[in-house]
Amino acid sequence: MTAFIDRLADATARQASMLCVGLDPEPARFPGAWKGDAARIYDFCAAIVDATHDLVCAFKPQIAYFAAHRAEDQLERLVAHVRRVAPGVPVILDAKRGDIGSTAEQYAREAFERYDADAVTLSPYMGVDSIEPYLRWDGRGLILLCRTSNPGGSDLQNQLLDGGERLYERVARLAAGPWNRDRRLGLVVGATFPEEIARVRAIAPTVPLLIPGVGAQGGDAAATVRAGWRPDGPIIVNSSRAVLYASGGEDFAAAARRVAEATRELLQRERGS
Ligand SMILES: O=C(O)c1cc(=O)[nH]c(=O)n1[C@@H]1O[C@H](COP(=O)(O)O)[C@@H](O)[C@H]1O
Fold it and tell me: Which GO terms fall under molecular function for this chain's record (predicted)?
């Protein structure tokens, strides 16, 4: 299998996009007759995929939004749908897993076999043996939480370690160096913290950065590109709710496309400047 980082680079170049649309379906926010109907999760997400797949470098389904509604089968169908309509667009399964090796083997199987994801988000805090099982899956990407977008992310990730390095900086250094076999690792850094994005980019110049937090969380998309993008250092800027719920009406898919298009343009413009 081609490496995730190469598939991502292809999609970014072909679609001229650093935008990732996050698939976080909330039935309570579905339009019209679909409102509150968890059986429509696939239909809702497939409509978003159909409306945006030529504008994105990746899709990122968040597993909890499916599992909470016993809709894992709909997630499987959704990934198959992405494969059909947008075969070159990578799917990042946002699962934030982290466990001992034997359990991690099961999580890896879930992400890469059951859901056929190109990459998965992981917590790095159980150490290198907790991510090794995922590395056995040829070509798949592992994206480690580094400096998350939420306010409480500072509680632990900003702690100073012996030697003067912050915890998130240590994660970035490990992901750029000793842990990064075959360029398989990426890092999550929140759009809400552009200074930390720049710091992570300095430590890990070529590691792909998944950057959530633009749109609903108020992160600065332009500052994100300035801090994180390099010609040889890809960024994947995720927006979920701002795209999915751009309109609560029957025109939700067209409205999602408009927001995705505007966000893509904004990101591309900043890259050129
Ligand atoms: O790993 C993630 O994707 C993630 C990390 C992080 O630091 N912050 C963060 O918001 N996310 C996810 O990114 C998405 C953000 O959604 P919106 O705020 O609606 O764009 C959600 O699926 C979150 O679970």
Answer: orotidine-5'-phosphate decarboxylase activity
